Amino acid sequence: MQPGECFEIGFILKPHGLKGGLSIELDVDDPSKYTKMESVIVKMDNTLVPFFVSSLQLQGKKGILYLEDINTIDDAEPLRSCSMLLPLSQLPKLKKNQFYYHEVIGYSIVDENLGQLGLIESVFSTGNQDLIAMRYKEKEILIPVSDEIVSHADHAQRQMMVNLPEGLLDIYLHE
After folding, report:
1. Is the predicted pLDDT of residue 43 greater than 70, yes or no?
2. Is residue 156 located within the same domain as residue 83?
3. For the chain, what is the mean pLDDT?
């Protein structure tokens, strides 16, 4: 399996206890959807390593994960700070106008008034606000992800339709 065929669900913080437990943090909207995972892929030194899950106890987004064949603290230590992934086929289904952030990287941003502006370089969260990063006139522009601004994604045309607030581009272009 290649990294492009997976999505990140969180990361391993550190070993937990002496019997191979792992303290983890999930970076997903609804952690409860992942409580019954049978396997997980761990990204170790740019290599994807699949593991079967023995058990997982979650409290909110944090939890303790036990993996088959990870039985001691020495087994668990190399997994410290590694990303956890699942195959794209396990992504929960979305409603019609929803999209996953990884799907829209490289899409064109098309504003209702200004037309095509640039390509989506990344989508990330600051904790309080999710942002779309695009390049426009050689400047990075950050667009808040909200229902008022982002209309929809047109997957067939690889476009993200937006209605930018007046003056948003000027903030970034003003020298």
Report:
1. yes
2. no
3. 91
Among 37, 59, 90, the domain boundary falls at 90
Dihedral of CA 77/15/57/62: which sign? negative
- For the whole prediction, is pTM greater than 0.70? no
**Would 61 be classed as within a structural domain?**
yes
- Would 40 be classed as within a structural domain? yes
DSSP letter string, the chain: --GGGEEEEEEEEEEETTTTEEEEEE-SS-GGGGTT-SEEEEEETTEEEEEEEEEEEEETTEEEEEETT--SHHHHGGGTT-EEEEEGGGSPP--TT---GGGGTTPEEEETTTEEEEEEEEEEE-SS-EEEEEEETTEEEEEE--TTTEEEEETTTTEEEE-PPTTHHHHHH--
Tell me the residue range of the domain where 82 lies.
Answer: 3-90
One-letter amino acid identity for 173? L
Q: What is the pLDDT of residues 49-108, one digit of tens each?
A: 999 999 999 999 999 999 999 999 999 999 999 999 999 888 877 777 778 887 888 999
76 and 111 inside one domain? no
Residue 175: pLDDT band with limits 50, 70, 90: low
One-letter amino acid at 92 equals: P
State whether 23 and 84 are in the same domain.
yes
Q: What is the CATH number of the domain that holds 17?
A: 2.40.30.60
